[in-house]
Amino acid sequence: MNAHKNVKMLSLLMIVAILLSTISACGAAEPAAQPETVNETVKEVVVTKVVEVPAERTDIRIMMAIPINAEIVMEDLLDRFESENPDINVILDNVPYSTILEILPLQLETGEGPDIAKVSNIAGLYEYYLDMRPYLSDPAYWEENMALTMEHMNPDGGNRISGFYTDVTVTGAFINRTLFEQAGVPVPSDTSDKVTWEEWAEAAVKVRDATGVDFAMAIDRSGHRISTLTISEGAKIFDKDGNVVLDDEGMRRALQLMLDWHADNTMPLDVWAGGDSYREATNDFINGNLVFMESGVWNVGPFTDKIGDAFDWEVVPNPCGDVTCTGMPGGSVMAAMKATKHPEEVARVMEFLAAEENYHEWAARALYIPQHTGIMAKGVEYATDLPQAIRAFKVFGEESTRLDPLSYRLQNHLYGYVIMNAIRDRLTQAIVGEITLDEALVRMQTDVDEAIAAAK
Amino acid sequence: MSEINVHPEISLQLQIRRQTQKAIKLLTVPLVGLLIVLLNGIGLFMDAIQKRIGIRRMAYIFVLPNMLLFTVFSLLPILGNFYYAFTAGTKVLPENRYFAGTANFEFLLHCDNYLDPGSCRADLFWRGLFNTVNYVVFAVGGILLFSLITAVILNRPIKGRGFFRGVFFYPTLLSSVVVALLWKWVLQRQGILNASLTGLGLEPVNFLLNAAWSNFWVIFIGVWSNVGFYTLIVLAGLQAIPGTLYEAAKIDGAGPWDSFRYITLPLVKPSLIVVFVLSFIRCVQVFDHVFVMTGGGPGTATQYIVQYIYNTGFSSNPPNLGVAAAASLILGLILLVLTLIQLRVTGSGEETDYA
Questions:
Q1: In Å, how far is B18's CA from the nearest CA of chain A?
Q2: I want to staple B147 with a disulfide (CB 3.0 to 4.6 A). Which of A291, A331, B132, B230 is the partner?
């Protein structure tokens, strides 16, 4: 019995000894010298620069939702940054867009989340942005070149310097010109720069019927995209006091068009009927199965990559409604977050990415439109010689000058997303016949009023 | 003795094998030793506790780790949920929310006509509730029926019985997301099923864009992916029935249907009750495979109550955690009441049967 007890006591002492030795074994990593380049063609290692990696590196996390072609560019830029700033380790998390929309706001409120994030709800998240001004080496550079960005990121009228636009967007229509040619149907925008929605729908249906593709026309299932239609048809959205009022003649006309197009199969149910999450019609367009798609400039990069010259895709001016011809502005900003524990390092990363040559490289290679006065004055030399992409940027550039002021007001409104999502969700119910258009308009208004009341 | 000439390559392989075996032996000894040390250490620790509190109370010590996990990951969140249900605001942190009393519950429960979701303030909540009732009725019914039929068949001495048991159980092993994606590919517009229909000269059907069809398929897939698990429960119940009862019944001239009705069903009833309770609770919480397959669509045709709670609390902009928490409490209360009723009914039924 005593021997048994002694064995157990000895075992307990050994466990404690193992635990203590394990804890003490966890020490700092030793610094290591790293060769920077390897010249493999001459079968020898040519060390051009030995970079001393400090023992303590600051981790900076960036959360983005970007396509693969843009991710490659960002990785290149960040690798360059790290080689010039070996004390900072930048970790890029490329996440689904729904994570940015749904999870990021919760993370930010709890004080967690990334140090930097690419966000599209620019006004809605302003309370979480870091004011980098005290940490920047040249705040005047930001004020001079990115004044509009500052305006959008300070809906309360402040003058924080919190980030820069990764991409300024504008909605626009893509057509599959090859299908038009195969069908022998003239492209309406070839003869007019004010083609109505109904004219596009009619032409797209003719092309679909002639070529046998599945879908004639589609608009992304997005409150942002549908606002292109509603505003062009005369929806006012706000009354003279700035209150949200959705039920008016223009809104009804626009939504009725959507109901009619789905009822007569001009538009497929696949995009707008399925559930209540964001859904693009992009894949159908890429597969050559869709004649006309209302989407936006962010698809130029992916289409250049995934379609290339497989068929002749083209951006055409935004269709016109009864009242105006307009797209919707948008975009995402790379925003520094105030919950970061490393504001100085965050500012260094942001200064590097926003520096003119690096910002230009990002825009040129990822095929995005920047918001930078200096770059726009000189023009962006896009890294593509695909004629479709070059033409697309030209059209989108022109479209950005034709945007209705109401579209800017809606996009930059503090509750812009609330309004657009309410329209999207209730319109879906009306399209599948769950509720009537009248009921949908009442419900949209109630949803918006209640959400705004809850947010205040 | 003649010399055996071994090919150099084979000799090398033999050397490698011997060295590997030696290494394994060398590693095994300290690993086993460490395990013995650890177990002895734990035993010493438990001896000390037992001396202090007595052997009768040792059961609580063994249950304690699980209770701690339950407290942290279940009980505290439930209590937190009560807090959120009675507060309002768009913030997550409790200190940033304000007291709202029963406002969230009033919002959810305010209806002109409880049978018409369109007349309710929170119409989507009521749509989700009605959809869930519909799902539960058909899915639980389907699970009970098909698990019983399958278990009865698999209990018979058929050829390849072991193989078929594996086949029926296999879908249970798959993750619900995988199941949903597979079936989505089968059912979508350009899926295999429509390709087959077209090949047979029939018109394709947009299964996932039609309210009735999408409801049918989510129920079907819910039953299909879970029936294997419940079949095992019923099978265990069937195998506990003594064979002598069937023999006696046969001697008395009872046919297969009589045996099933008067012997099998009453004696497998306890297993069926277990299946009912488990499947009922699981079906009320349906979310995964539906969300992946239809996203709750078309429209809100397959949006169930759990998705409503998720949408309200997480994916809406801004999120409304108060209403989501209140909805989850209402759901929990409904579940509790129904479970108590069901246990009471089946419990009294049992007494009657065996009186």
A1: 31
A2: B230
Chain A to chain B Cβ contacts (< 8 Å) = 111
Nearest to B295 among A12, A277, A418 (CB): A277
- Other CB atoms within a 10 A radius of the CB of residue A445 amount to 17
Domain boundary among A378, A411, A445: A378
| Three-state secondary structure call for residue A312 | coil
Name every chain B residue with its beta carbon within 8 A of the beta carbon of A15: 37-38, 41
Segment B5-18, tens digit of pLDDT: 556 667 788 888 88
Tell me which residue range forms the domain holding A100: 57-168+331-378
* Nearest-angstrom CA–CA distance, B211 and A432: 9
A185 and A322 in a single domain? The answer is yes
Q: What is the CATH number of the domain that holds B252?
A: 1.10.3720.10
Are A345 and A442 found together in one domain? no
Q: Is the pLDDT of residue B125 over 90?
A: yes
Give how far the C-alpha of residue A420 lies from the chain's centroid of Cα atoms, to the nearest Å: 16
Task: For residue B261, give its domain range.
Answer: 125-353
Write out pLDDT tens, residues A188-216: 999 998 999 999 999 999 999 999 999 99
Assess if residue B118 is contained within a domain. no
Residue A8 has its nearest CB partner, among B44, B89, B96, at B44
8 A C-beta contact, residue A237 and residue A323: no
Crossing angle, helix B123-154 and helix B265-284, to 10 degrees?
150
B91: chain A residues, CB-CB within 8 Å: 109
Are A319 and A431 within one domain?
Answer: yes
Would residue A74 count as lying in a domain?
yes
What is the value of pTM for the model shown?
A: 0.80
Collect all residues of chain A within an 8 Å Cβ-Cβ radius of residue B320: 451, 454
Residues of B whose CB is below 8 A from A275:
291, 294-297, 303
Torsion of CA A47, A58, A127, A118, to 10 degrees: 30
